[in-house]
TrEMBL record:
Enzyme Commission numbers on file: 2.5.1.97
SMART domains with a match to the protein in the record: SAF
Protein name: Pseudaminic acid synthase
Gene Ontology MF terms in the entry: N-acylneuraminate-9-phosphate synthase activity
Length: 349
């Protein structure tokens, strides 16, 4: 699989995960706060900043019939109609340009999740550099196809998708000649529990479908994202808010800026720590070799005297012969006098 290039950032094997801060509705319908979230994402070290492009009418009907009222998904959403929830959550179209511009000023990639073909058409007028298909939209082939036809990277969350769904997503991308696809392992509960995250799916999905795979993480804390990094996640997406106490549709499962900074640092360190298969002392360990045990003279020894467990011992530091040689040295004569504290070497025999 080839790396995917987003600006100057590479997504692929051997790179630290591309970390996306998802703003969603955490702006609380304030552009000033939205820009504050962009600044916080940049300060935390995120490479991507994602918003959502929708209107309530793109998503649902303005109705309080039972099918259109939220029950049991998230306590903050309970009892709202879908239309009310999406009204609170949506990002006004006129905010998109200033948000993307602020992200670009920080060197971040600003992009969006479109919730309709019309949303993609609008985002194309802003030269949106990539698209993210949300889990709840991943069963809509026309939306994926329109995103694929832009020729830009398309990141697809796979919440609730079965194998047939996954194959369909990737097939649509490839039918449109677009190999720049990243699938995100996702558990579509808010918040999600580590127990339900099934991270071992990440390498399996990558090998089965031949594309880059990451994680859309709705769990609390950094542990799940770090574990996903170790399993090869090329992208990590986390919701970001300034303060969970501010409330909002997604605040309860969003990270605060200091937490996001730790996540970026820990995922980067986890990827670096993977390294390569390597045995023996590393270059950094060379100075530590002296603190190992080795064979030393512990009593003065005259020329011609025999080596015994009384006059040589296995002690620190590590400048003498290795302890494994002790059995073959016992009983041998030395050819020159050796003083107590001398590192035993072959030329002494």
């Amino acid at each position: 699989m080839q790396d995917i290039l987003l600006g100057t950032h590479r997504i692929g094997t051997g790179h630290a995960p591309f970390i996306i801060a998802e703003m969603s509705g955490n702006h609380g319908q304030s552009l000033e706060k939205a820009l504050e979230i962009v600044d916080a994402a940049a300060a935390a070290g995120c490479q991507g900043l994602k918003i959502q492009t929708s209107t309530p009418d793109m998503l649902t009907l303005d109705s309080r019939e039972p099918d259109f009222v939220v029950r049991g998904a998230n306590s903050d959403w309970e009892g709202q109609s879908l239309y009310e929830l999406y009204t609170t959550n949506h990002t006004p179209f006129e905010w998109h340009a200033p948000i993307f511009e602020r992200a670009a000023a920080h060197g971040m990639i600003g992009f969006s999740s479109p919730f309709s073909v019309e949303a993609i058409n609008f985002l194309e007028t802003l030269n949106c550099p990539a698209y993210k298909i949300a889990s709840f939209e991943n069963n809509w082939p026309d939306l994926i196809r329109r995103a694929a036809r832009t020729g830009k990277p398309v990141i697809i969350s796979t919440g609730m998708a079965d194998l047939a769904d996954l194959e369909r997503m990737v097939q649509i991308m490839r039918e449109e000649g677009n190999e720049q696809v990243v699938l995100l392992k996702c558990t579509s509960t808010y918040p999600a529990l580590p127990l339900n995250t099934n991270l071992r799916t990440i390498p399996h999905m990558r090998d089965m479908l031949g594309c880059h795979v990451g994680l859309s993480d709705h769990t609390m804390g950094t542990g799940v994202s770090v574990a996903a990094t170790v399993l090869g996640a090329a992208v990590i997406e986390k919701h970001l808010t300034i303060r969970r106490a501010d409330g909002g549709p997604d605040s309860s499962f969003s990270m605060e800026p200091d937490e996001m900074r730790r996540l970026v640092e820990e995922c980067t360190q986890a990827q670096q720590a993977l390294g390569n298969v390597f045995y023996g002392p590393t270059a950094a360990e060379q100075k530590s070799l002296g603190f190992r045990r080795s064979l030393y003279v512990v009593q003065d020894i005259a020329a011609g005297e025999v080596l015994t467990t009384d006059n040589i011992r296995v002690i620190r530091p590590g400048h003498g012969l290795a302890p494994a040689h002790l059995p073959e040295l016992l009983g041998r004569q030395v050819r020159k006098p050796l003083r107590r504290g001398t590192a035993l070497t072959w030329d002494a025999l």
